Structures are given as C-alpha cells and as structure tokens.
Amino acid sequence: MTNTAMKIKNLSRAISISIIWVILLMLTGCWDRREINDVAFVLAGGADKEGDNIRISVLIPLTGNMGDSGGGGGSGGQKPYSIKTETGKTVSEAVSKLQSRLSRHLFFGHRRVIIVGEELARTGGIETVIDAITRTPEKRLSTFIAVSEGSALDMLNADTRLERFSAESMREELQSETSAGINLKEILYKLISIGDDAYFPYVQKVKTKIEGQESEDIRSDGFVLFHNGRMTGELTGNSALGFRLLNQSIRNYDETINIDGSYLTVSINQAKISIKPIVKNEELSYRIHSRVKVSIREDKNLERNYSYSEQRYQIEQSIAQHVVDNINLAINKMQQNNSDAIGFGLQAYRAYPKIWTTKYRKDWDELFPKIKFEVTGEANVFRLGMSSENLGKKDN
Question: Residue 53 pLDDT more than 50?
C-alpha cells in the first residue's frame, strides 16, 4: 500500500471517529431536561373572578403525604395535596406570579379537569380562560371542563372522602352516567360552529353530616347554558334530563312516575330522538319525536298485571308523556335564556342552507326564543324485571 493510500485511509478513519464522537455527545442529555423532583404536577385547575382580576388555582398532589392509609387521608392526618392560588389581570399573568413563588415548575400535562367559577362564567370570562389554555403547549384536549356552583377554588378544596383528590372525584363524576363530560376539544368545536351555543356540565358540592362527621361530595347532573360567551342560565332536575335526551348523549337513567296513585320506577335504556326543521309559509318550526325503550325497576303496586295489554299501554303512555314533558321543559329553559345549546340553528342550516343564510342567520338571536316546537313521544316496555310472576306477590 502506498503512502498516499495510507494517508487517505487514516484520514477517513479519523473523520469517522470524529462523527461518532459528535453523535455520542449529542445523545448525552437534553438541554431542557428537568428532574421529576423539580416538577409540580397539576391535577386540576380553577378560575374565578375577583374584582377586575382573575384568580387561578391549582391542585398539586403531595406524594410524601399519601402514605398507605385508606380513604382520602394522607400520612399523619395531613392532606395528600396542596392548593396554590394567585390573581392577575390575565390568566397568564396569574400563572406567572404563581410560578415565581413556587420551588417547583408547574406542569399542566396531567391536568384532568378545569373548573370555572359561576361568577366568572356569567361575566364572559370563560372564553379568556379557554384562549389562554389552548395557547399552552402542555394542554390536553381531553381535559374535562365544567362550571361550578359558587367558586372554583371552593370546589377544588372539597373534602371528598371516597377519592384522595377532588380532581379525581370530579373527573369520575363528569364521565359518569349522570353527566355528559365536555372536554376542551368538544367545546372548541361548539364555539366556532354556526347556530350553536355552548353548554357545560354544572358541578355542585353536596354536604353530608352524620353523627357529627361532615363530608362533602361532588354532584354533576345539571348543565349551564351559554350565549355569546356568557352563562345565561342552568338546567337542573327534569329539564336536565330533557336536555340529555335532546343532546342524544343519553346513558341509562331512572325515572319515577305516578300511575293511578302508585309510584313506578323505570330505567330508560335506549332513546332515539328525531329533530326535523320545517319551513312552511316562510315560518321555521321544529318537529321532535322521541322513542324510548324502558325496563321496570320497581313497582309499588304489587297487584299490577303486566300481562294485561291495556295496563301495559297505560304505563307506556305515561312514560312517553313524562319524557315529552322533560323535553318541553328543556326547550322552554333554553328559549328563556336565549341559548341554542342543542344547535337547532345548525340543523336548520344543514336542512335549508340557502334560507338559513339569507333569512335566519343574521337575526337568530331574536328568532330563537319565538320558534315553535312540536314534541311527541312513544315508549316501549321491553323488560318487566321478572321471570314469570312478580316475586313480590303473595301466593293465594
């Protein structure tokens, strides 16, 4: 091998070794790495109005206080979490001020729920909160968002005993059968939709006091209505059940009705809702028809004969009328609060795009409270809850 060939070979080897060293140096670590001990994981966040400012609250778990004790308590009787709060002219300012006095870096990538206080929601501050959240790189579009009765800070500090953290209790409640969990992705879609107002689950704190021991639970079986970015009203009780049917987010729920002076509890197992916009004589109206399948859960009238077709028909008619009443109640509430949370305008746009664009879209805020709705319903009892004879009947 000539001297020239040897030099070329040695030079190639030196270049290869240099490249390998550069690659290895690049793999030794991340320039922006952060040790886990330097991070404060936020499980839940809250936003409240305080004067002209916004109060931001965060719930941070304290692993050192969790211990092995059962229930929601931590080791030594200390809470397994800490709530930190700060105010600012904007959400970002409040978070920055909060971060400046914490020894750990706030990490929002594991945030499960965001709670907005009722006063902030009524004054139109919720869109500001959503705008700030969506600009954060650590946002999770699957994070649940809800409006609280009272302040969000008070809700985060709820003394729930069934779960370690109020954040976990709220997350489970918001995705349970009694609620309709709304996440950031879904609310962003509703905010930009045509002829569609936003709605949020309504979380409330319920206190239980037994023999001097007080505990708190979080309930979410209602909804808050929005119009032009502001909370205008709430749906609770039967109006909330009617809204769930209209929203077609129905999951099994129980209804108790009075038939001939005796109470009957049924389970609504399936529901199909048809919403049809109709333009007649240049007037827009809606025809709504509900079809539900129900099963009997309990009947206080042990002498009721389900084999008798007339008796069964009476039960089905009573259930259908009860469902229709709930739907009408929800529609009336939405019209009173001028909140098209179901998206009736969007459905009119899909059915009559030209008429909607030229006639209804511009004045929908004034037209919606006056729209007429025709609601009908039918029910089918498909499960009686007994194999042959009612086991509660006495033998003759």
Answer: yes
CB 205 within 8 A of CB 153: no
What percent of the chain has a predicted confidence (pLDDT) above 90?
31
What pLDDT, on a 0 to 100 scale, did the predictor assign at position 266?
87
d(CA 245, CA 373) in angstroms, rounded, equals 15
For residue 89, give every residue at least 6 positions away whose Cβ sits within 8 Å of its Cβ, in sequence order, or none. 52, 53, 54
